[in-house]
Design a protein that fits this description.
The chain has about 725 residues and is an alpha+beta fold. Among the domains are: about 160 residues, 3-Layer(aba) Sandwich (Glutaredoxin); about 90 residues, no CATH class; about 80 residues. It is built from 27 helices and 21 strands. The strands form seven sheets. The protein has a five-stranded mixed beta sheet with strand order 1-3-2-4-5, with helices on both faces. It has a four-stranded mixed beta sheet with strand order 19-18-20-21, sandwiched between helices. Strands 8-9-12 form a three-stranded antiparallel beta sheet. A hairpin with a 4-residue loop joins β14 and β15. α18 runs antiparallel to α19 and α19 packs across α21. The longest helix has 19 residues. InterPro entries: 6-hairpin_glycosidase_sf, 6hp_glycosidase-like_sf, Ssp411, Ssp411-like_TRX, Thioredoxin-like_sf.
């Protein structure tokens, strides 16, 4: 590579996104005091650009504007320019995204915001083309106009930014109103189900026409709704909606049929043409959802998809030290000699390529049938490409095919006169060949940042899959990742989590000069992961760490006046707002998960004030839960768990004994959204016995592993039969 002509301060950062911009002619600063001081000293406006390393439009804006010498000069002359990786600093992103959404009605990345020297926003948007077009003002024009305004109308701008900030403070506040109590579970559950049911796509699954997102929070809610309404038509519909959506997603192009795992979202109604980036948080949550689908239905199809996701993550998103990387990009070079990246280039195929790779005749099929014919028929491949030009505005996929399983295997087998088992073997052979061919292509960029929150989601995915599929290897992988978090993303001196660490030179794990402290989302997803990992592994050390982190979360983030948790600590003066997220999105909002975590923590510790705290969170969100529960399906689910009281399933027995294992297998094979599992192994000095004195009174019956179902530490009669236990586990 040629020697770069420019280098700015971002060269000293660890974030892959910031490093992507280290050679722009823009004099970028990272978010921090040096930039703030410069803006104040020179009385300059701040231009804040927020994105992430696998964001397609962030790449486009960089190519068009931030690499332009001329635009760089305008930016450097008039502004102090700050670059932020939204995955590293979700706190900064959220404050200014709240502003952009409130003032423009939309949001997204790259986010472009102009701030006064004291960090107050007054203008903003997302992607800007470099030059004026018919319908849009160009970036250069916007820069010059804003610089002019600052020169001519500084006082008016400052006044307007102050007004905007006050309005944002008022509209973004979530707090308990008067003597509010948690909303009633039945009404909130029913309203949420009806709202989801109305937006459900009967043909293809999912909850909108297009674009279509995986939304694990909706599926998780539907599974719980089914579990609590199993004998009603609404319950049956909830289950059908969830399972059909998961099946259609897995058949679609959203699912990578050759390289495994799931892409970010579908641009069309059919789950066919995806936006090709792959995010860790999607893999973690979807592994958990497909595990639940298998647990409920017993259909091996879902178990296969779980294995598919975890194979992808183990192979492509795993650091050798045990952590998980954040994402793979959508864009890559089509060939080793290409000079321009294209979206989806790593994943798509021409019919000609497939014929050349799969020329073998198929025995037992009609004369002249090749592997290519069978594969292309099954995956909807067309000679001219199978991508609708309307879904490909930049013609990047012209003539290409995104694989989508168009018909059930039985029909493909019948068409070619093959046994279903034989077809499965043939398709597997094709997939292996295509996988080898794809390995020769230039890979998309890998974001090797490791985030506590997303690692937590992935640990939950591995732990739940390991328990449900009885795959010890998955549980071990979850434990390896949890040990990684304890080593690299936890400060034992302060007892606090850190947000991020990075793959360094020679595959070492590095930390930035000033580590970023963990946010609320880091705590809730890691605590949830540790509870899931305890239930899968029965290692009490994970439980002990989870309870320590829950105490720390209370100390750092709890709002004693308005209730619920703030997303950030109070100690950062550069953050103008302390917010509480109020919408479940690609990930659940932290307060939604915090409710269930608090209830689980109370069951494992006997601290009943945690149950009270869970109720206070629901009270703070009560109005939203009753009016538009569809925006918070995970919190609606938690409301049901709160009102139904968690069952403590206690198994007294030797964890290594076959009778205990049989009972554990039974517990793991039943979907019960309102249970926590613990094993009383007779070690009275152990952590659980110290936390829960009532365990000492429970004993084995006739020397056999014995189960007790307890509620608020009051236990049922002992059960030694697996059949009886199964009956007692149903919600």
């Amino acid at each position: 590579p040629s020697v770069p002509r420019h280098t700015n301060r971002l060269i000293n950062e660890k974030s892959p996104y910031l490093l992507q911009h280290a050679h722009n002619p823009v004099d970028w600063y990272p978010w921090g005091q040096e930039a703030f001081d410069k803006a104040k000293t020179e009385n300059k406006l701040i231009f804040l650009s927020v994105g992430y390393s696998t964001c397609h439009w962030c790449h486009v804006m960089e190519e068009e504007s931030f690499k332009s010498k001329e635009i760089g000069e305008i930016m450097n002359e008039h502004f102090v320019c700050i670059k932020v990786d939204r995955e590293e600093r979700p706190d900064v992103d959220k404050v200014y995204m709240t502003f952009v959404q409130a003032t423009s009605g939309g949001g997204g990345w790259p986010m472009s915001v102009w701030l006064t020297p004291d960090l107050k926003p007054f203008a903003g948007g997302t992607y800007f083309p470099p030059e004026d077009g018919v319908h849009r003002v160009g970036f250069r024009t916007v820069l010059l106009r804003i610089a002019e305004q600052w020169k001519e109308n500084k006082d008016a701008l400052l006044e307007s930014s102050q007004r905007i900030l006050e309005a944002l403070r008022h509209t973004s506040e979530i707090r308990v109103q008067g003597q509010e109590s948690p909303p009633p579970a039945k009404e909130v559950m029913d309203t949420c189900f009806q709202q989801l049911s109305r937006s459900y796509d009967e043909d293809y699954g999912g909850f909108s026409k297009s674009p279509k997102f995986p939304t694990p929070v909706n599926l998780n809610f539907l599974f719980t709704y089914w579990a609590l309404h199993q004998t009603t038509p609404e319950g049956a519909r909830a289950l059908k909606m969830a399972l059909h959506t998961l099946k259609m997603m897995a058949h679609g192009g959203l699912h990578d049929h050759i390289g495994q795992g799931f892409h970010r979202y579908s641009t069309d109604q059919h789950w066919h043409v995806p936006h090709f980036e792959k995010m860790l948080y999607d893999q973690g949550q979807l592994a958990a959802m497909y595990s639940k689908a298998f647990q409920i239905s017993g259909d091996e199809f879902f178990a296969d998809i779980v294995r598919d996701i975890l194979l992808y993550v183990s192979r492509d998103l795993s650091d050798q030290a045990g952590g998980f990387y954040s994402a793979e990009d959508a864009d890559s070079y089509p060939t080793t000699t290409s000079t321009e990246k294209r979206e989806g280039a790593f994943c798509v195929w021409t019919a000609k390529e497939l014929r050349a790779l799969l020329p073998d005749p198929v025995e037992g099929a009609a004369e002249g049938t090749t592997l290519g014919d069978v594969f292309m028929h099954h995956y909807g491949v067309e000679e001219a490409g199978n991508v609708d030009p309307m879904k490909d505005p930049h013609q990047e996929l012209k003539g290409k095919n995104v694989l989508i399983a168009r018909c059930p295997p039985e029909l493909t087998a019948a068409r070619f006169g093959l046994e279903p088992g034989r077809l499965s073997a043939l398709l597997q052979e094709c997939q292996q060949r295509l996988s080898s061919a794809r390995a020769q292509r230039p890979r998309p960029h890998l974001d090797t940042k490791m985030l506590a929150a997303w690692n937590g989601l992935m640990i939950s995915g591995f732990a739940q899959a390991g328990a449900t599929l009885a795959e010890q290897g998955y549980v071990s992988r979850a434990a390896q990742a949890a040990a990684f978090l304890r080593t690299h993303l936890f400060d034992p001196d302060s007892g606090r989590l850190l947000r991020s660490c990075y793959r360094g030179k020679h595959n070492s794990v590095e930390q930035s000069a000033v580590p970023i402290q963990g946010f609320l989302e880091d705590y809730v997803f890691v605590i949830q992961a540790l509870f899931d990992l305890y239930e899968a592994s029965l290692e009490q050390g994970w439980l002990e760490w989870a309870l320590h982190l829950q105490h720390m979360q209370d100390k750092l983030f709890w709002d004693p006046k308005g209730f619920a948790y703030f997303s950030t600590e109070a100690s950062d003066p550069s953050l103008l707002l302390r917010l509480k997220d109020d919408q479940d999105g690609a990930e659940p909002t932290p307060n939604s998960i915090a409710v269930t975590n608090l209830l689980r923590a109370a069951c494992y510790s006997g601290h009943m004030d945690w149950v009270e705290k869970a109720g206070k969170i629901l009270a703070a969100f009560s109005e939203r839960l009753q009016k538009i529960p569809i925006t918070l399906p995970e919190m609606v689910r938690a409301t049901a768990v709160f009102h139904h009281t968690l069952k403590q399933v206690v198994i007294c027995g030797d964890p290594q004994g076959e009778d205990t294992k049989e009972m554990l297998h039974c517990v793991h094979s039943v979907f019960s959204p309102n249970k926590v599992l613990m094993v009383a192994d007779g070690d009275s000095a152990g952590f659980l016995y110290r936390q829960l004195p009532f365990l000492a009174s429970l004993e084995r019956k006739d020397g056999k592993a014995t189960a007790y179902i307890c509620s608020n530490f009051t236990c049922s009669l002992p059960v030694t039969s697996v059949q009886e236990l199964r009956g007692m586990l149903s919600p």
